[in-house]
Each structure stands twice: as C-alpha cells, then as structure tokens.
Amino acid sequence: MPDATPALPGAAAKPPPPEQALREFPDTQWGQGRTTHLEHLVEAGCVLHFPQLAFTVQPPEQRFLDPRWSDGRSKNISLRAGGELRGTQAQGQDRQQLQAMIERFAAQAAQLVDRLFPQYRGKLRAGNASLRPFEVQGRETSWRKDDARLHVDAFPSNPTRGLRLLRVFSNVHPGQLARQWRVGEAFEDFGARFLPRLRPAWPGSARALHLLRLTKALRTPYDQAMLQLHDLAKSDLEYQRRAPQARVDFAPGSTWVVYSDQVLHAVMGGQHMMEQTFYLHPDDQLAPHTAPLRVLERLLGRELGVPPRRR
Ligand code: SIN
Ligand code: FE
Q1: CA–CA distance from 286 to each of 118, 126, 207, 208, 247 (Å)?
Q2: Whose CA is nearest to atom 2 of ligand 1?
Q3: Residue 151 CA: which ligand 1 atom is closest?
Q4: pTM of the entire structure?
Q5: How many other CB atoms are found less than 10 A from the CB of residue 122?
Q6: In this structure, which residue's CA is closest to atom 6 in ligand 1?
Q7: Ligand 1 binding pocket mutation candidate from 139, 140, 147, 165 (most atoms within 8 A of CB)
Q8: Tens of pLDDT along 155-186?
Q9: Tens digit of pLDDT for each residue in 232-247?
Q10: Nearest bound ligand to CA 263?
Q11: How far apart are CA 260 and CA 79, in angstroms?
C-alpha cells in the first residue's frame, strides 16, 4: 500500500495492537518513490518500515563501523544540528570522513520525511543525527538507562516540553545482525495504566535543575510526567514481561520511522545503526490529539505546559 490516500485533518488511524504496529513499504530510494501522506499512520503509533531502503556505507567508510572510534564516554557518535561532531576520538581526515558519512545520513533522512509527511513540510526541525556503533547486549549500566526495557523516549537533561520526537533509524550492520526490538501497547493505554502512580515534582525543582544547568531548558509538567512514565515502565518487571508487546526485527539494509515519544519500544539486540531525530510542534500534526502531551492532558484533566515554537 505505497500510495496511502491523504487523510482528513484530525483523522488519525486507530492505534494498532503491537503485533500490527509495523507497516511495510517497498521504497528503495530516499528522495524518490510514491510512498507519501503517512502522517495518519505514524501519528497513530505505527512503525513505518522500509525493508529495502538502505543507507549505503561506502567502502572507505566501513572502517567506522567499529566502537573504537568512540571517545569511550558516549554511547553514540553524534552530529549536532549545528554541525558539531561529538562522542568520537577521530581526528583530521578520519574525523572529516566520519562527519561526512553522518551528514549524508542526515540529508537522506530529511529527504525521506519530506516525502512521507507533506503536512510537516517546513515545520519539522532536525535535531542530532548519530552513529551507534556499540553492540546492544551488555551495554546497560543501570535499569534507568537500560533500553532493553520497554519505554517511551524522555531524557532527563533535554526537556522537549511537549514537542514530538520523530526518529529515522537505519540498520547498517555489515553482516546479518538484525536490530531486534519489542514494541508495546498504545500510548493512551500505557498512560492510563501508570498515571495513578505519578507524583507531583518538588516545587521549584524545574527551576533549580535549570539553574544548575542539569537541564537544557525548563522542564514543564509534561516533561516531569514523561520522565516518571519512562522510569515507572522500566522499573516494573511485571510490566516488562506481561504488557502487550510484539517482537520486530529490522534487518541490515532496512530503515524505520517512528514517534519514539509515543511508541513503547525496547532494543534487544543489534549493532551499528544510524539515527536522525526531528522535532515537531504537536499543533503541526495532522491529528494533534494523538500527541502524548494531549493524551496525558486529557487523561489528567489539566494542562501540562506549552511547547515552544522555537528550539
Ligand atoms: C532507543 O531505545 O531509543 C534505542 C533504540 C535502539 O538502540 O535501537
Ligand atoms: Fe528509546
């Protein structure tokens, strides 16, 4: 079903059960192809999967598929939206080539989302792009950082204040190793399940964290709720085992696109992946009511802060 018909504003698809979350498309090129108007699917919580859309690592770049280029502190080598490369000890020409490879991925990811989501044109803001060269298994240092547990993305130092996190991933493993994920229940079900356990943040904590430069922006009540939901899910082993979920494998040479602030996900295995993050204001969605901010506000019956127009 490459040529999905444009949906009416406000008409997101129904949230899929985990075993139907994956939707496949036959595209083989980033900037060209007939697949378009998929806003209603991605906003419903589907994972858009392109099994034949590969990010090509050129022969001279194959050497970068090796964790030894890391700086030893970061788990990713990332290219900031402003153009700065972080997380690598590569110098000189190596560094330039590594940066050029991640820049090429960023450019192709931008072409892809431009084509898939015409409604978002001119509204998506690119965040960081990264190369993730570490083997997934055995990587976790604490339960909170353990992405092998189902979670929605929410980052302690980087409040989004309700902006959407749209991510493009490509498995660039040079051999056969799939990126193995689990995907979980609909965001609304997840929210309703854990909301009774949410606690108000300490008065003044958002301001104090910001003054101490522990957060890059002031956390809003939305960020505080999302961080707690992230932790409640990861710390609940019963939930991890028993929650509705499905396994999905992304083979080398495939690409997938997902709202990672909405889709419960966990990574169980794999090595070598590229990733590009985009931010979108929820009011710029086709169906704004599907945004986690709006879902939580409905469930709680109160406002959770105002997402920024600029970041
Ligand atoms: C994540 O949980 O966002 C990481 C996904 C991955 O490493 O495949
Ligand atoms: Fe995640």
Answers
A1: 10, 19, 33, 36, 28
A2: 147
A3: 2
A4: 0.95
A5: 6
A6: 267
A7: 147
A8: 999 999 999 999 999 999 999 999 999 999 99
A9: 999 999 999 999 999 9
A10: 2
A11: 19
Residue among 132, 167, 247 whose CB has most ligand 1 atoms within 8 A, to mutate = 132
Q: How many CB atoms lie within 10 A of CB 28?
A: 11
Contact 255, 29 (CB under 8 A): no
> Is the pLDDT reported for residue 107 higher than 60?
yes
Structure letter (DSSP) for residue 57: P
Give the confidence band of 311 by pLDDT, cuts at 50, 70, 90. Answer: low
Which pair of tokens denotes residue 243?
């929650």
Give residues (CB < 6 A) around ligand 1: 132, 147, 153, 179, 260, 265, 267, 273
Q: Do 43 and 72 form a contact (C-beta atoms < 8 A)?
A: no
User: Is the separation of the CB atoms in 35 and 3 below 8 Å?
Assistant: yes
CA of 49 to the centre of ligand 2 (A): 17
In order of 19, 21, 84, 156, 267, the CA distances from 149 in angstroms are 18, 18, 31, 17, 7
DSSP structure class, residue 200? P
How far is residue 273 from each of residues 102, 132, 226, 256, measured CA to CA in Å? 11, 5, 25, 11
